[in-house]
Amino acid sequence: MIRLQAPAKLNLYLRVLGRRPDGYHEIETLFERIDLADELTFEPADDLQLTCNDQQLSSGEDNLVIKAARALQQHAGTTQGAHIHLTKRIPIAAGLGGGSSDAATTLVGLNLLWKLQRDRSSLMELAGTLGSDIPFFLCDESPFAIGRGRGERCESFVPTGIQQLAHILVVPSERLSTKDVYTDGEFNLTASKPSITMLLHAFSNGSLSELAQGLWNDLEPEAIRRCPVIARIQASLHELGCLGIRVSGSGSAVFGLCRDSAHAQQLARELRQTADRSWQIHVAHTATAALASVHGSAA
Predict the structure, then answer these.
(1) Pick from 109, 139, 157: which residue ends a domain?
(2) Catalytic one among 38, 102, 133, 218?
(3) pLDDT value at residue 188
């Protein structure tokens, strides 16, 4: 059996640059891999089977895990099968990239199980055909990466100052569709906004306050319009004293940047005393470990 963790992500910066001829949006984003994670196990089988602890999720051909497995089969010209079990911990449709991470982890896990010896770059190329965020989860040089294009063109960012962040992460029960948020969002492409360079500079000089000021997400207004509870969560995090607060991706998850892990733990305890019971509250840190070695060993 091969057992792998599939980490969630935050978008510390997300700017929409315009609509592309293919209907997608051109973006510039800074991803952060965090330690909230799903878990996948892979075992040999005659055909492809997916089971999941969350009965709300389809285990059929429409699941990104199965789509990734089928794509790798075709890419490698193999008919090998696998029993894949997904333990879901990342909230779905919350802007945390759980499905994309599961797909990336599937490519890595089956590459190991089937002994295909595909390198990281070939898996990233395949990942880009499956979804915009999936290649990021195969970046192994750093837990941070700059995404361009649809988000699929990833370049690892290795900070020289700040190495790890701590956040309080709040996920309401409401869920949002990424497609709908992009489709209906009105993006002011000429307005003055923080640049991604500001954020990268803050990492390099070790300034958490500058980093907090540089957090940005062009999708946030549409996410709040569709899911007003986001504004309540942001207000709560502001009152608690988070350094910076943003929606991740297309929402509905909201993260608050904290001074350190102890600060995040303290704020989480305080928020749990007053928060809506339907909100999921997590303390999340930068996940410093890579997804998995492409040529690693079975668990």
Answers:
(1) 157
(2) 133
(3) 86
Distance between CA atoms of residues 153 and 85, nearest Å: 29
Residue 299 within a domain: no
Query: Please, which residues have CB within 8 angstroms of residue 161's CB and are 6 or more apart in sequence?
Result: 203, 204, 205, 206, 207
150 in helix, strand or coil? coil
The structure tokens 């986001």 sit at 230
Total domains in the chain come to 2
Q: How many CB atoms lie within 10 A of CB 49?
A: 15
Question: Cα(117)–Cα(283) distance, rounded to whole angstroms?
Answer: 36
The pLDDT tens digits of the residues spanning 24-63 come to: 899 999 999 999 999 999 999 999 999 999 988 999 999 9
User: Is-catalytic flag, 35?
Assistant: no
Q: Which of 131, 157, 183 is the last residue of a domain?
A: 157
Burial class of residue 179, CB neighbours in 10 A (0-12, 13-18, 19+): exposed
Domain range for 261: 166-285
Alpha helices in the chain (DSSP H): 64-76, 98-113, 120-128, 178-184, 196-205, 208-214, 220-226, 229-240, 261-274
**Does one domain contain both 137 and 184?**
no
- Specify whether 113 is located in the same domain as 180: no
Low-confidence ranges of the chain (pLDDT < 50): 293-299
Q: Please name the residues in contact with 262: beta carbons below 8 A apart, sequence gap of 6 or more.
A: none
Q: What is the rounded distance in angstroms from the CA atom of residue 13 to the CA atom of residue 242?
A: 17
Is residue 69 within 8 A of residue 16, CB to CB? The reply is no
Q: Name the average pLDDT for the chain.
A: 94
Whether 180 is a known active-site residue: answer no
pTM for the complete prediction?
0.94
User: Of residues 9, 88, 102, 218, which has the active-site annotation?
Assistant: 9
Structural domain includes residue 291: no
pLDDT of residue 289: 66
